[in-house]
């Protein structure tokens, strides 16, 4: 789904959001420069996989938090983890590096990639800023609405302490 299709989907489901345009950003740090005065959780999104490539995960963490890989292995009940490759991003989510967003999961036709939200991100704010599959836009949406829309399309959404 492209950005307009996602916004149309949110409108169709009567989801309240605010949209902000900005120059293209490729990291959460760059995005934070344009969102510093906005009232929502500032997060980074990681696309990771098991070393054998059998399982993939979309992880959402507060921008200031580093992923504890050992804790993630324990919390996700899986084997050793690593970052997904550019090929994985293109193959599974139809995106390029720098565009990772929970909305990318709407491009996962297999519905096998769970969204795992770090609990620290959930308590930071009731709202989160995410890209609608376009790194020149950020939308402010409630965590509840984000998880509701992804769940309604068959995606598992979990919260963990990573």
Tell me the domain tally.
Answer: 1
User: What value does the Rg take, in angstroms?
Assistant: 15 Å
The CATH class? Alpha Beta
- Profile the largest sheet: 5 strands, mixed
β-strand percent reads: 15-25%
CATH architecture identity: Alpha-Beta Complex
Mean pLDDT, all residues: 89
InterPro entries: ProX/PRXD1 (IPR040285), YbaK/aa-tRNA-synt-asso_dom_sf (IPR036754), YbaK/aa-tRNA-synth-assoc-dom (IPR007214)
Pfam family, one: tRNA_edit
GO biological process, one term: translation
Domain YbaK/aminoacyl-tRNA synthetase-associated: 22-148
Provide tags for this entry.
25% strand; 6 helices; globular; 31% helix; five-stranded mixed β-sheet; 162 residues; single chain; alpha/beta; YbaK protein
Can you describe what's shown?
This protein is an alpha/beta fold and 162 residues long. It has a single domain (3-160), classed as YbaK/aminoacyl-tRNA synthetase-associated domain (YbaK protein, Alpha-Beta Complex), CATH 3.90.960. Helices cover 31% and strands 25% of the residues. The protein has helices spanning 3-12, 28-35, 69-76, 86-93, 119-124, 143-152; strands at 18-21, 43-50, 56-62, 81-83, 115-118, 127-130, 137-142, 157-160. Strand 2 and strand 3 form a beta hairpin. Keywords: Aminoacyl-tRNA synthetase, Ligase, Protein biosynthesis. This is Prolyl-tRNA synthetase associated domain-containing protein. Residues 22-148 form the YbaK/aminoacyl-tRNA synthetase-associated domain. It comes from Lactobacillus xujianguonis.
TL;DR?
The chain contains 6 helices and 8 strands; from the N terminus they run αβαββαβαβαββαβ. With 162 residues, it is α/β, with parallel strands linked by helices.
């Amino acid at each position: 789904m492209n950005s307009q299709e996602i916004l149309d989907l949110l409108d169709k489901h009567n989801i309240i959001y605010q949209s902000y345009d900005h120059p293209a950003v490729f990291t959460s740090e760059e995005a934070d420069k344009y969102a510093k005065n906005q009232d929502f959780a500032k997060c980074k999104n990681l696309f990771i996989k098991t070393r054998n490539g059998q399982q993939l995960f979309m992880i959402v963490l507060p921008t200031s938090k580093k992923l504890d890989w050992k804790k993630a292995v324990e919390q996700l009940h899986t084997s050793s983890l690593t970052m997904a490759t550019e090929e994985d991003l293109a193959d599974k989510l139809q995106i390029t590096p720098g565009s990772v967003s929970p909305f990318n999961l709407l491009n996962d036709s297999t519905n096998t990639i769970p969204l795992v939200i770090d609990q620290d991100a959930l308590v930071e704010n009731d709202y989160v800023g995410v890209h609608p599959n376009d790194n020149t836009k950020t939308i402010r949406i409630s965590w509840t609405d984000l998880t509701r829309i992804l769940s309604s399309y068959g995606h598992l959404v979990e919260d963990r302490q990573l």
